[in-house]
Amino acid sequence: MSTFTKPLKLEYIDGKEWKLTNAFVYYTDLPVKYKAFTIPSGFITDFATIPKILCFVFDRFGKYGKAAVLHDYLYSQCPVSRDTADDMFLEAMKVLGVNKTRRYLIYFAVRLFGKKHYCKK
Asked: What global pTM score does this model have?
């Protein structure tokens, strides 16, 4: 069963970024080589990177916050393909109880606008 192991605990850094103060693990049901992904303490995130054109519809800190941190980690560390990272984001939003319409709108926005951020070192 897909699940997160711990609550999200963060430290505010500046107007855009936060630092994870405790590690958490996400377990996925997707058909991937590894079923557990550890997001380490100290990981820096900006939550959901929302294009300016969509800022009036979505905020960076919605119910999907923990899924956004997972997605940032997957995009920055590249342990899975971009398609799988996006699918895991969708799965994680469902785990967090984000309603179906909202999670698919966010998912499709990530598919449209996220490519330039994947594995950007």
From this structure: 0.89
Residue type, position 83, single letter: D
Both tokens of 23, joined, read: 């590690």
Burial of 10 (0-12, 13-18, 19+ CB in 10 A): middle
Q: How far is CA 31 from CA 4, 57, 85, 94, 110, in A?
A: 17, 32, 12, 17, 21
Do residues 73 and 106 touch, judged by C-beta distance below 8 A? Answer: no
Please give the helix or strand (H or E) that residue 74 lies within, else none. Answer: helix 65-77
**Token pair 């300016």: residue:** 52
Q: What is the pLDDT of residues 39-83, one digit of tens each?
A: 999 999 987 665 555 555 555 567 888 999 999 999 999 999 999
